[in-house]
Amino acid sequence: MVNQLLQQSKDWILKNKVATFLSVALFAMVITTIALAVSNNSNATDLEECQAEIDAFYATSTTVITSPGTTLEVTTGTETNDGTTTTMVSMETSPLPETTTTTTLPTTTSNPAVVNYRLPDDNIPLHYDLELHPDLVQDTFQGTVTITILHVRANEQVVLHSHLLDIQQIKFKCLNDSTTVYINSNYDDKLDFLKINLNKVVPQDYISELTITFSGKLNAGIVGFYSSSYTDENGSQIFPDPNGSDE
After folding, report:
1. Sequence-separated (6 or more) residues with CB below 8 Å from residue 204
2. Are strands 230-231 and 237-238 parallel, antiparallel or unpaired?
3. What is the CATH number of domain 123-217?
4. What is the pTM assigned to this prediction?
5. DSSP-derived secondary structure for 100-112
6. What digits encode the pLDDT tens for the residues 219-245?
7. Which residue of 61, 62, 110, 214 is 20 to 30 Å from 184, comparing CA positions?
8. What are phi and psi of 231, to 5 degrees?
């Protein structure tokens, strides 16, 4: 009897495939709808809990420090007569502690304790012609130098370094103005400056030639132009040969 019912059911399903498929699909749809309803109900509960927490948070006063000495107080959740919620904002500024700002600027005045041996930059040497004539017997030398100078700023004095030299003659010739001449000179012992004074100001960008004849001693010290020698095994004083070989 049971086998007969199973066979009849099987035959009915085979004959009604469409109806069977629709029944299964309808059952699956019902299950899905139930699951979505349960999920939505759970989400709605979560949203209600979050909203309750937010409402509780906004129902209190919040104090925010916006900057040193400034307090911003925000009070929310105050319900008015028409049922709306207002937000109250108040700002209180307290005095800041006194502070002192010290700015150190570079000094523009020179320290009198520091000696500056650099030459003034009013004049720039463009070219040197130098002749030296040493006398190794007398330990002296003679020299002549001609300096081509560019006057980058208008000035009436040329300053050079000079140490242990006997200045014999000075000639100055301005290539742009023949009336500008040398008048006198003075010497700064502390800085070893030879200051050559002119009869008038030389304009900017003029070019001149300065010729100086001088003399000095070769044995004045190991400074500048000096002589050196050594004693060989026989006790003879030997002067190094400038060409690279000793006699």
Report:
1. 151, 152, 153, 154
2. antiparallel
3. 2.60.40.1730
4. 0.51
5. ----PPPP-SPPT
6. 877 777 777 777 888 888 776 665 555
7. 110
8. -105, 130
